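Hey, I'm writing a tutorial for new members on how sequence and structure tokens pair up, and I'd like a real worked example in the thread rather than a made-up one. If someone can provide the structure for the chain below, I'll link this post from the tutorial.
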Amino acid sequence: MHEAPATSEHRTRIPALPAWLGALGLIPFVTMAFAAVIGGPMPLPIDPMFGLIAYGAVILSFLGGIQWGLVLAPPAESRRLSEPGQAFVIGVIPSIVGWIALLVSDTIGISLLIAGFAGQWLVDRRTARQGGFPAWFGLLRTRLTAIVIGTLLLSLSMHP
């Protein structure tokens, strides 16, 4: 059987599972940011700003690890990367940024996360344009990053 060539819409349509998982992954960002802004009692005994920074550090680290996954993929896939060594280095930076964000003041930590997510988005967008990711991944990352940075900016703007 012969497959029809993929249309532009087919290549950029985000598959349902990654779309849902990405949306679910936004819940802690949104809830912690609003809890930090609104204040008041939390259902869990944690500081919302710390919860937001900790979750942001974990997710930023996860995103950096995707670069390693590209390099460690089977040879046919890893050939898409022009600089595999660069991907290893770039993949570690988000973990370091996230870790530092946990050690500094809330304002500096949130600012570091904003810079980290913006930087990782630029890396992922470039990788998608070079064929290292499916086109839909670049679109997913753009949408998710916009919301993540928005929640971080909201919490930053309301933090004393």
